[in-house]
Design brief:
CATH class of the largest domain: Alpha Beta
Largest sheet: 5 strands, antiparallel
Strand content: 5-15%
Order of helices and strands: HHEEHEEEHHH
Number of helices: 6
Structural class: alpha+beta
CATH architecture of the largest domain: 2-Layer Sandwich
Helix content: 55-70%
């Protein structure tokens, strides 16, 4: 007989396999996937800030809406976006620095001699844009978004390069290092929450499996009693679901089977009585035939009146 595994055991193994697979996949790919998701959202955020500022800047051909544009820049800086608005001369150098975000410690290091983070220094930022080919492309209609992973001694940042007018440019940038840290932190928290969920589910499955398998065990016991012709104890399952309907069907089947067996036993007794009643005349006729043959073999006595009457009576009974 094959080994039977309980439903609770199978349920626990299935849940454990799913959760352990989830944890392994999260440890292997979770950080990179979450980081890509965050980077994509940040790129969309940069594009949205550019579109809002461009709309305010180009609202009036003679004079930009600096109030709305300033609100857009202020909102962008609150979301950790660095801004540089400037014009360039014929030589490709910064002609007028209209606006720039000034932060002292964006890279996590203090530099008292330079109020700009090196990666966000206007001069270095312009050189980086030239190196990445921002001015060799048409960025007046569609901005150029470049995400750096920190290779070749370049900072981990997301840059957006756009051209607002003939010689006016808007650069937006946000550090990518914080995104990577947030992705790693989210992955760790997710693994911790998944492990905690696995522990709680283990306890829940243990108790729920007992509750779920108890009526099934009762139904199995009732079926075994019926197979042994024991109809005294009914199947008592009161779960209020399909298992209760199944137990009621088993009880009805047991009652019908009990009635059929009782009817068959009664019919068997009647058949025995009928058979016994038919066997008595047959035995009597056989005895009379034997006596008749015996008397007929006595010629000297067959002429006696009494014997003749007995012989005639037996012949009549035989017929």
């Amino acid at each position: 007989m094959p080994k039977i595994h309980s439903i609770g055991h199978r349920l626990f193994l299935s849940t454990a396999l799913i959760l352990l697979t989830t944890i392994a996949a999260t440890l292997l790919f979770g950080s990179s996937l979450i980081e890509r998701y965050y980077v994509h959202n940040k790129e969309v955020e940069l594009k949205h800030a550019y579109q809002s500022f461009s709309l305010a800047f180009n609202r009036n051909e003679s004079l930009p809406d600096w109030k709305t544009a300033g609100e857009v820049l202020y909102d962008a800086e609150k979301r950790n976006i660095n801004v540089m608005l400037f014009t360039i001369d014929a030589n490709g150098n910064i002609d007028q620095l209209i606006y720039t975000s000034r932060y002292n410690n964006w890279s996590g290091t203090n530099d008292s001699q330079n109020s700009f983070k090196p990666a966000y220094s206007p001069k270095l930022w312009l050189e980086r844009a030239q190196h990445e080919g921002a001015f060799s492309q048409d960025i007046s209609e569609e901005p150029l978004v470049i995400t750096s992973n920190g290779s070749d001694n370049r900072p981990q940042i997301i840059d957006l390069y756009s051209q607002l007018s003939d010689n006016c440019y808007l650069f937006l940038s946000t550090p990518k290092e914080q995104i990577s840290l947030a992705a790693n932190l989210a992955t760790k928290y997710y693994v911790i929450i998944t492990c905690l969920t696995f522990f709680l589910l283990t306890i829940a499955i243990y108790f729920q499996s007992k509750r779920f398998t108890k009526p099934i065990i009762e139904i199995n016991s009732a079926a075994q009693r019926i197979s042994q012709m024991d109809f005294a104890t009914p199947c008592n399952v009161t779960t209020g679901d399909e298992l209760q309907n199944l137990s009621q069907s088993i009880n009805v089947m047991a009652q019908n089977l009990k009635a059929y067996i009782a009817e068959m036993e009664l019919n068997q007794e009647l058949l025995k009585k009928i058979w016994s009643a038919k066997q008595k005349p047959i035995k009597c006729a056989a005895s009379l035939s034997l006596m008749s043959r015996t008397i007929s073999k006595l010629p000297s006595l067959s002429s006696a009146p009494i014997l003749r009457r007995c012989w005639s009576s037996m012949r009549a009974m035989q017929n």
